[in-house]
Amino acid sequence: MEPCELEFIGENTIIGVIPNFTMDPIHLISGSIGPFRAGLPVHVPLWLAIHMKKQQKCRIVPPEWMEVDLLEEIREEEKRSKFFTKMPDEHYMVISKLILCNAADDVPSAEEIRTKIKDIFDIRDAKLRTSIKTFLQGSGTYAKLDNLTQFEIHTVRPLLPHALDHIARYQRAAIAAERRTTTMSNSGFAGSSGHNSFFSQ
What we know:
57% of the residues lie in helices and 10% in strands.
């Protein structure tokens, strides 16, 4: 997927807002949103929350995982583990970017949260690139990487053609070696049969 497609998907994440107006539900193709009551929390798609925020119509309620202590725990776990830890949201990068860019005043310790999310992404990105490098240097034909997000996979897309080319070369070499082994075995068998027939005459 392209970055714009990933952002589009992330923008449909449901988050909380506290509107400063009262209005009946909005009826969209995807379903109804609302009603809106001033001062009362309501859940809306992220794209609508950003639009309302830009119109100064609401305050965005950050997701529970956008909290300093929780993000610190995730960062430390990511550093300790050789595997990828499960992230609190598949679209954590898109969600955090949109909220911090458009509603930083609604996020306590916004700059610290921004830093920790970037740290987490950088650790995971380095781990992913190392995994791909190790795979390319090995003799495996496939790799399993759990708990990666689509955004993270997209960042290493330029490396994937090299990985696929490596797999194709390895498979071709393996097939060629197997054919040579089979040919040699058949030749040896044919030679043995010839000697046996000679001595039996």
